[in-house]
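Protein modeling request. Please complete all fields; requests missing the sequence field cannot be processed.
Requester role: graduate student
Desired output: 3D structure, token encoding
Chains: 1
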Amino acid sequence: MATDASSSFGASSITTSSLSEYQLYTFTEGDVEGPVVDLLGKPVYFLSTVRNERGILESTTITRSSASGSLVAQIRWAQDKVTIGPSKSTLPIKNLLQRKIGVPSSKYHFQDENKSAFYWKEERCMTPEKQLIAQYARQKKGPFSVLPEQPATLLVAESYAISTSVDYILTTAVIMEMRRKQAERSSGQSSGFGGGIMSQS
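Delivered output (201 residues):
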């Protein structure tokens, strides 16, 4: 299921005239479940999530929707760990997405396999030079969940969508959304990555 990118991203962020320079990814079945498809509806990634008996996330596995089905990342929420990249490195989530020590900020910094640097600020992903390279649009539900949902989407600049950076951008986008949901459930209480992202999607 594809969605209209221009309806998800305002002109103040990514303009309609520049949409051709971005690749659209749609999370068709939820933030951490099912196929992630491109603008033509072709599956690009597949998300599979394990929950415990209370419905709390235990792990999310992201694979490529190709013949190889190669692993992109595995996020182990309860352990605060993520395995990611061609080298399949495992590290704490707080080490993948870092905040600058001693600097109050809403920015979460990360690097891809080639040490290219990026940061998320709310739903925007930027380079250190403040170039907007990706933007996440959250899943929306109608009043009382009667109206159809608008699935979450991720726009990624074409130059990054054709590189291995997109794996890191998409994986960190998923983590950032789960962080936002946890913060909302915690009613403004601290929800840093160090204490476990025990989320229900």
